[in-house]
Design brief:
The chain is an alpha/beta fold. The protein has one domain (6-75): Rossmann fold (3-Layer(aba) Sandwich), CATH 3.40.50. Helix content is 38%, strand content 25%. The strands form two sheets. Strands 1-2-5 form a three-stranded parallel sheet. It has a two-stranded antiparallel ribbon with strand order 3-4. Strand 1 (6-11), helix 1 (13-26) and strand 2 (31-39) form a beta-alpha-beta unit. Helix 1 runs parallel beside helix 2 (53-64).
Length: 89
């Protein structure tokens, strides 16, 4: 395709973010999801048990990591984007 990597951040990890990452992965993009640059809200699971926002977020990351994307932190993304130091002449 010739595209560079796709870095995803956003709101509602278990909805819009998850849908975006799944589609990007299915289309063959090298996709990275930034854990600490996304968030969601508490919600009830299928059986009615209230799950915290952190639990919902963590489950979405688990659903996506290494299948549709690689989950990284902001620090990891920024470190990867730094040019290598040049050797002194």
């Amino acid at each position: 395709m010739g595209q560079g990597p796709l870095v995803v951040t956003g709101v509602v990890t278990n909805n819009s973010v998850e849908a975006t990452v799944r589609m990007a992965g299915n289309l063959g993009f090298r996709t990275y999801l930034v854990d600490d640059a996304c968030f969601t809200f508490a919600r009830r699971d299928f059986r009615g048990r209230l799950r915290s926002a952190d639990e919902v977020h963590a489950m979405s990351l688990a659903n996506l990591d290494q299948e549709y994307c690689t989950v990284l932190t902001t620090a990891q993304v920024l470190a990867a984007d730094r040019p290598a130091p040049r050797p002194h002449a």
